[in-house]
Specification:
With 423 residues, the protein is α+β, with helices and mostly antiparallel strands. The protein has 3 helices and 10 strands. Strands 1, 2, 3, 4, 5, 6, 7, 8, 9 and 10 form a 10-stranded antiparallel sheet that branches.
Length: 423
């Protein structure tokens, strides 16, 4: 009877043990499965956002293509109108050159007329002076000139001379007056020709002005299309940035999934979020969670910001000029990656086991590589200002914005304030 009771008790105990084991194992499996599902849900969500973002990009690109087609037509019209305007301007220039030439001839005729009028005036003045002298001297002056001749031949010679002087003056005045009349006729003809050319020029200018008005309307439409194009290009550029960021997020989550699956296969997933010990602590001050400060200098300053999920470390006082300072591993681990990222810049990412990772970003130089084992306190990089930092470095201040951006991850989740992990 006692044997039967003991046997029954052992069976009950075995059943209880199996039940407890059965309950415990599914719980751990469910936890691991839940973590993988959580990461996969994030990946699926990012993929859906990426698909929508790419759909938006495609829509914006179609709008741009349609606008570009319209712009090509508008540019063709503008080029045609520009050609017409250039042709009109060439005709206008030709008419203007012709008018300038006619005006030059008119100016020359006017000047010649003025010279002839001055010459007539001089001739009239000479005749007047001679007539006045004859009048003052009386008619005897001419008679005296003739009668005082020594002989008849001289008398005839002098008589012919007086007659010829009178005829010459009369003919000279008559010729000059005819020249003036001819010049007036020439000027009138030139003026008529010029007026005709100017009328043609005015007509062509009116035609050109009409074409320029058409071009102004077309250019207004072109400016409107280009404004729409610029707006859509900005939206497309922003959408492409969103897609790129989603690609980066998806890659990070996929890497996180790979790390988690690998850790689970190696039995490294405990969910404890703690480190086993301080490792090569040496003379370093170690926190309760087993980490040391990555910057082993006096006067280290810590800064955190809302939603930053990191802490920024700099040095001050005698150890100022943070750029180039040594960065040390906060704990023992294996370098998961040492690479450049557009936001983090040069950054080292270390797996410390038990689901704990640390990141050291904006390095000026990385001194380790992926797969390398490091001990707590080993120098892994130098402080810098690569990636997205503020203020941005410049030629006048190349070390601006230098700091260590330090992150702690626990089971794939970034810790809001990594200072809680440091001494």
């Amino acid at each position: 009877m006692r044997k039967f009771t003991l046997r029954r008790a052992m069976c009950v105990l075995s059943v209880c043990t199996l039940c407890i084991s059965a309950m415990t194992y599914p719980t751990l499996t469910a936890s691991a499965q839940s973590k993988e599902e959580e990461i996969q849900d994030k990946i699926d969500d990012k993929e859906a956002q990426k698909a929508q973002s790419q759909k938006n990009e495609s829509s914006f690109q179609k709008e741009l293509d349609a606008l570009q087609d319209d712009l090509d037509v508008i540019n063709g019209k503008v080029n045609s109108l520009n050609t017409q305007i250039a042709q009109k301007n060439a005709v206008i220039k030709q008419y203007q050159d012709e008018m300038n030439s006619l005006q030059s001839e008119i100016d020359q005729a006017t000047q010649k007329q003025a010279d002839l009028e001055q010459q007539i005036s001089g001739t009239y003045e000479q005749l007047s002076e001679r007539l006045c002298a004859a009048y003052m001297a009386g008619e005897t002056s001419t008679l005296e000139l003739l009668l005082t001749a020594e002989d008849f031949e001289t008398f005839l010679t002098r008589l012919e001379l007086v007659k010829r002087i009178s005829e010459h003056d009369t003919a000279l005045v008559a010729d000059l007056q005819q020249d003036i009349t001819d010049l007036n006729d020439t000027k009138e003809k030139l003026s008529r020709d010029k007026a005709e050319v100017e009328e043609k020029k005015t007509a062509v200018q009116s035609e050109r002005d009409a074409v320029e008005a058409d071009r102004a309307e077309v250019l207004k439409a072109k400016n409107l299309q280009e404004s729409k194009q610029n707006s859509i290009e900005q939206k497309l550029s922003q959408q492409q940035k969103t897609t790129n960021q989603l690609n980066a997020d998806i890659q990070f989550l996929q890497e996180e999934m790979e790390r988690y699956v690998a850790e689970k296969a190696q039995g490294m997933v405990s969910g404890s979020g703690t480190l086993s010990g301080g490792g090569n602590s040496g003379n370093y001050k170690v926190s309760s969670k087993g980490m040391i400060c990555p910057l082993q200098y006096p006067n280290v300053q810590y800064k955190t910001y809302s939603n930053h999920r990191a802490t920024d470390l700099t040095t001050s006082g005698a150890t100022g000029n943070t750029y180039g300072k040594e960065i040390r591993a906060a704990a023992d681990g294996v370098v998961y990656s040492a690479e450049y990222h557009y936001s983090w810049g040069n950054n080292v990412y270390i797996n410390h086991g038990n689901g704990v990772y640390t990141r050291y970003a904006h390095c000026s130089k990385m001194l380790v590589s992926a797969g390398q084992h490091v001990k707590q306190g080993d120098v892994i990089a130098l402080v810098g200002n690569t990636g997205n930092v503020s203020p941005r470095p410049s030629a006048s201040n190349p070390h601006a914005g230098a700091h260590l951006h330090f992150e702690v991850y626990v089971n794939g989740n970034r810790v809001n304030d990594p200072r809680t992990w440091l001494p």
